[in-house]
Amino acid sequence: MIRRYCTISRTLKRKLIFEAQFDVKDDDAVTAFVSAVTALPTLKIALNHAGFPPLAITGSWKSNIGRLAALPNLYVKASGWEMCDRAFPPGEIANVIQTLIEVFGEDRVMLASNFPLTLFRTPYNVLWQDYAQLNLTPQTLDKLVHDNAFGFYRF
Asked: Mapped to the 3 state alphabet, what secondary structure does the chain carry?
């Protein structure tokens, strides 16, 4: 127990960030992840690629996103759409982002690219144009494209 506490203490002093990448549709992976990170409540954690959402937001991805959002130190980066489907439609991206905002709140969602892999789906500038066309207030869009990431990665 003392060794574990010392490890956690050193981690927190170093202000580390952990970036997780796994399929959120995998119930066992989500259970293991939640169990593991509960012991590190002050470690900043980013879930990459929105947990690989399906084209239709249903089932285990949506319920597991809710489980993960209960971790107050977990942020989500929405990117990597081409890793789920090289033709991931902008309308479905908007649905995923809206779901993430509803579940995580607008202060823990970050929009990102997966450059250069994003080029498999769309040119880099088009991805950001798609984000700019989301049905979001200018204040929320600023949070998602800049403010949240700035706060997350800054110490």
From this structure: CHHHHHHHHHHHHCCCEEEECCCCCCHHHHHHHHHHHCCCCCCEEEEHHHHCCCCCCCHHHHHHHHHHHCCCCEEEEECCHHHHCCCCCHHHHHHHHHHHHHHHCCCCEEECCCCCHHHHCCCHHHHHHHHHCCCCCHHHHHHHHHHHHHHHHCC
35 found inside a domain: yes
Number of domains observed in the structure of the chain = 1
Range of the domain at 129: 11-153
Length of the chain: 155
pTM: 0.88
- Identify whether 4 is part of a domain: no
Residues 6+ apart with CB under 8 A from 116: none
Task: Specify if 6 maps to a domain.
Answer: no
Q: List pLDDT tens digits, range 130-142.
A: 999 999 999 999 9
